[in-house]
Amino acid sequence: MKKFIVALATFTGLDGAKSKKLLAVAAACLLSTAAHSAEFYKLDEHPTTLLVEGRIEMGDDQRLMNVLMARTERGARTEYIEFNSPGGFVAPAYSMARFIRNMNIDTIIGSAEECSSACMIAFAGGRYRYAWEGAKLGVHSSSIEGVESGDGTVDIARFMTALGAPATVIAAIVTTSSDDITWLSPAHTGNWVTFWKTPGAVTPPAPPTPTVPNIPNSAPETQATDSYSMTCQSTATKTITRLDGMGIKPFR
Known about the structure:
alpha/beta; 2-enoyl-CoA Hydratase, Chain A, domain 1; 12 strands; 18% strand
């Protein structure tokens, strides 16, 4: 990266001081991008649960896959993926949903945590889907660079339907503006999401009516992005161990 910036500075005729300034700005941009990507944590009190926290950015699907494969290679089971995310890009969320379902992993949203926008697509991939009482599940239509996208919304609706989402959830997605949000309740989700009332249980109860449809072979081909942004809720009550920033090295 540094060689590239130096070459760029030489090409544009910048002097030494300006070249250093350009390098600093580029580095800051890279750090800013990394800081806003999703982070992956193992929960020390629940070793079979992986926490995904933060905005979903391009490439986060591959990073999550790397973490899951590293766990598998080390003989560590991943039974649950817990989400705490305000959303992000739709494309990696589709991929996350697909391999979460293919690996038969259940998904969770913790009490006082949030999974909204594109996060709900990834959450939908869970073999079974759970939410603690107090969790926030938010949906709305799709947008491209802040402009509502009807095609993108239709793609999301079809994908979520294939994952078993009930008509009440689909209706909330397509009727909610991309700059607004609908918070789902048990009345919306029915048996598609099982709500727990006792946070901290190690073994969750089985859902009353299992809903495990086959996942589509491929995600919709769409460039839509979900630009809705919210502040993530705190997970300070958890004992967590941060994984490698790129999600490549097996954690210990």
